[in-house]
Specification:
The protein is mainly beta. It is built from two helices and ten strands.
Length: 127
């Protein structure tokens, strides 16, 4: 079954909408999430609309860290994933998304990039 980015055919109560519903169309097509995990870097290229390319980050173990106090950038190794606001189960599965907090040698870092869209990991030092 295709993943589409359209309104559900059912109401939150479980009833159906009476208005005419559109069929699944190519421009409404969605994809499964990348679910970036902690391991040696691996990215996957995908062709998107208009013939452009998008890179999904499948595995990553390094992050570009910005320190707001010193105003410097550095590349750090990720030790573990501490928190993930997207889903609490992602911490157990070592999955990184935007907004996740990871542990590095410098301290805790909040991920500010979208690894499933950009194929890069960057974040801001929290502690």
């Amino acid at each position: 079954m295709a993943i589409i980015q359209a309104r559900s055919r059912r109401k939150p109560s479980g009833g159906r909408y009476k208005a005419k519903l559109i069929k699944k169309k190519k421009h409404l097509l969605g994809r499964t999430p990348a679910l970036t995990k902690l391991d040696e870097r691996k990215a996957h290229q995908i062709r998107v609309r208009g013939g452009h390319a998008k890179f999904k980050l499948i595995l990553a173990n390094k992050i570009n860290v910005y320190d707001p106090k010193t105003k410097k950038h550095s590349v750090e190794d990720i030790e573990t994933i501490k928190e993930n606001t997207a889903n609490s189960q992602f911490v157990r599965r070592n999955i990184m998304t935007k907004g996740a907090i990871v542990q590095t040698k410098k301290g805790k870092v909040k991920i500010t990039s979208r690894p499933g869209q950009d194929a890069g990991l960057s974040g801001v030092l929290v502690e």
